[in-house]
């Protein structure tokens, strides 16, 4: 049977460890559950930042190729606009 959990040990400065325990108590969660939630939120935030970075890159590239206005007026399939914009 495949293991569903892997035990990990981390070390924290005492003040952060106390705050972590207080947050876990406040949220009515054990420390493992709180860590899983924090890790999930971290991954979501990282993916969102990556997406926004790619979106900014794409917008900048489109503006540099003078495609931005053309794409706003008409979004079409490949070949319906100038090839420099696709």
Distance between the termini: 49 Å
Number of strands: 0
Radius of gyration: 23 Å
The domain count comes to 1
Uncertain runs: none
Structural class: mainly alpha
Name the shape in a single word.
Answer: elongated
| Integer average pLDDT | 83
Helicity, as a percent range: 55-70%
Q: What's the SSE pattern?
A: HHH
Strand content: under 5%
The biggest beta sheet reads: none
Structural commentary:
It is a single chain. The protein is mostly helical. The chain has helices spanning 14-26, 31-64, 68-73. The mean pLDDT is 83.
What are its keywords?
86 residues, 62% helix, mainly alpha, 3 helices
Concise account of the structure shown:
The chain has 86 residues and is an all-alpha fold. It has one domain. It is built from 3 helices and no strands.
Write the layout of secondary structure elements.
Blueprint: H1 14-26, H2 31-64, H3 68-73
